[in-house]
Write a structure and sequence with these properties.
Helix content of chain A: 10-25%
Structural class of chain A: alpha+beta
Oligomer: homodimer
């Protein structure tokens, strides 16, 4: 299939964590259009599974939605070169106060492919040992504990809406069910 | 819990489909920070299930990743007031060339809650009848057909990374497994 080509990329605004670009694209039949593009340095998120099977979740205020949300622990890389496994280990300990003895890759997600290059690698963390939460000065996070049944119910009734959290938890559920077969 | 407060929101760039804002927030202890905020008009996506259980998927070039991707059909609302069910019915027919006789809400997703208010309502479409693809002039989409087993495999081996697609398909898989129990 002939494909769309990008013929120009112009930086139009530099944000705190994002850069906003104006792209000019050309279709195979010669039509031109301007498309938004947002550059992001990438992130990691973690499904932290306690020895009894419960999942450690974080509740925090999200400015973009102007409300509190319940999510799996996650955070951006310090820079685009940082391995996401290091980012995952740091974020799960900082946000939940548990250090992970074992980390296993579960998924790679692209959060908003219509306009953003953000990548989130998703890991399952086990062998969790309590340490201490270390939050940034603009982070205020509560730690909560749920069974997978409770979380699946909260996703299917619309209580949990965060896409990375839904994708991570439902994929973990499907992967565990496959192993049991 | 005392929470973070937003004390200012300033529009800094108007894109083609997105608006970019600079927010100033204040933490409970008086610390101030600037956070990025992107406004989006919302979208719908669809898991289109044929009578034989196969799923209709779309393959297209994604400028943000500079490659082809395999996704469930989706599209933005015409305006923030458009019901997402109408958007879903329109997009599934435009992108796949099938009209849905039945549409059932599955999930509500927030794609990138660290910085964007985008909402995607996810529907399951059944009773599909072949009609005709109607693509926008800058849309070039191939239609493909997969079993759920094939799609779950492609998610767990990292081939499918689009977060709305992963969240939608894995949630559909979990919901179907629950009904069978």
């Amino acid at each position: 299939m002939d494909s769309i080509k990008r013929i120009k990329r112009e930086l139009v605004y530099t944000g705190t964590i994002l850069d906003f670009y104006k792209d000019t694209i050309e279709t195979p039949d010669g039509h031109r259009a301007e498309w938004d593009f947002i550059a992001h340095k990438g992130a990691a998120c973690v499904v932290p599974v306690l020895d009894d099977g419960r999942i450690i979740m974080v509740r925090q205020y999200r400015n973009a939605l102007d409300r509190m949300t319940l999510e799996v622990p996650a955070g951006a890389r310090n820079n685009p070169q940082e391995p996401t496994s290091e980012c995952a280990l740091r974020e799960v300990e900082e946000e939940t106060g548990y250090r992970a003895g074992k980390l296993e890759w579960l998924l790679t997600l692209r959060t908003a492919i219509a306009y953003c290059d953000e990548l989130i690698d998703v890991y399952v963390a086990t062998e969790l040992v309590p340490t201490k939460q270390h939050l940034d000065e603009d982070e205020f996070i509560d730690v909560e504990y749920y069974t997978m049944d409770q979380l699946v119910e909260m996703i299917l009734n619309g209580t949990i809406q965060d896409a990375k959290t839904v994708a991570a938890l439902m994929s973990y559920q499907v992967k565990c069910a496959r192993r049991e077969q």
